[in-house]
What does this fold into?
Amino acid sequence: MAYEQFANRLADIVGKANVLASEEDRKVYSYDGTSTWTHKPDLVVFPTETEHVEAVLKLANENRIPVTPRGGGTNVSGGSVPIRGGIVLVMTKMNKILSVDAANLSARVQAGVVLMDLQTALAKERLFFPPDPQSFLGATLGGIIAENAGGPVCLKYGVTKQYVLGLKAVLPTGRIVEFGGSTVKNVVGYDLVSLVTGSEGTLAVVTEAVLRLLPLPPARKTIIALFDDLPKSGETVGKILDAGTIPAKIELLDNWVVRSINRITGMGLPEDAAAMLMFECDGTEDVVEHDSRNVIRVCEEVGATQVLVADDPAKAQAYWKARSAGFAAVFGAAPTVLAEDVTVPRTRMAEFIQRVTAICKKADLEVTVIGHAGDGNLHPSVMTDAKDPAHFQKAQRAVDEIIEAAVEFGGVLSGEHGIGLEKQKFMRRTQDPIFIDLMRNIKDIFDPNGILNPGKIWEDRSG
Ligand SMILES: Cc1cc2nc3c(=O)[nH]c(=O)nc-3n(C[C@H](O)[C@H](O)[C@H](O)COP(=O)(O)OP(=O)(O)OC[C@H]3O[C@@H](n4cnc5c(N)ncnc54)[C@H](O)[C@@H]3O)c2cc1C
It folds into this structure.
């Protein structure tokens, strides 16, 4: 079927205003949060109800048209780039919080709800959804579920899959299914909720989710510790956890990021520090007091040059805003930033950072490290320029070495950003072929014609 005819059929399903086909619109939906991946879709479609998704997928499946689901387009692995063209299915108009059930600590939401909007609504009821990817201003629950996203508080609270109780989704063949339920305990058959969570939009399009919530902690405290060398900061993280204290967040920022924060916010943090750790302790007042005392004591014992405590919520908020500014600074620091996402055992974090620094020094590349130190999840970011082929290739080679080093250190290819397009080339090199074959077989069951987000996670059979 010609795309023009196909567009008319889609307009019959979702309404004319919800199908975009102009060159400019197709360009807008051709990329995501990665620096290097882009491909224009043929059509952009906005469903507003599950039945629209059902009808669109049925039609696409019959005509073997690729469909790439998309939320806020903030992922950093190429997940929502429509690499085979076809339809980009944008879920942002399905953005209703359908219900909040405080007594059962759960909420039912449509997939296009933006995380920040959900947290704002939940805070009014003294509740929260713990996973906190730092893209919360634009990321949708559908995208967060598809990426099994994490974030700073995952040290204490875990990642998205621990907070998805049930899913309403549409299979690529155009069949609506419901997995899981609304209770925390549920061992009825295979755990398909967990399978779809983290499947990067390759198995089903999520249209609604039942989320597990927690009561908002009544108290929290932010502590900042500065270190004159990176290994000491790594050692501190291990000793705090070993002392039986699990802060909600332990974030690591290197000297480059600290200087950027000062430049952007004028906070005046000491710039001679090699590394800064940011902690947040939360819970009841006495738990927060106890945990904060432990954190401060260990930081001082290990040899922090300075320990700062945010004594009021406004100051704490300023510190965490600064942390976000640091992340933004990384992305804006060069024409192209190869922002990585690896996880290593936390006991080997300092050693890994030293390896990253050595790799980049040898190649004469600027690199900065920011990360969720509590769970060994680090984001080394290499500065380059895709328009300068020699420099860019050098940077890509360094990134390859960094990823291989993470695996060598007993870590994983991706801690929270997913494989998408970005890390496919490492899958064969680092994973058991049986694991890849099992995934392919599962994909074939869900998507016999391979129309849903094709070309992602593993290299194609042809590749
Ligand atoms: C500044 C910044 C900070 C970040 N910080 C973190 C962080 O701290 N922790 C972390 O884990 N991640 C982080 N991320 C990445 C994070 O994975 C994404 O921001 C988020 O998960 C994607 O949500 P989205 O709605 O933008 O989805 P998109 O980017 O649109 O899509 C992501 C994937 O989900 C699929 N998808 C989208 N919606 C659906 C749906 N309804 N059904 C099925 N599949 C769907 C897409 O096909 C794609 O594969 C960050 C990203 C940025 C840019």
About this structure: The CA atoms of residues 145 and 197 lie 5 Å apart. The mean pLDDT is 93. The first strand starts at residue 19 and ends at 20. The first helix runs from residue 3 to 14.
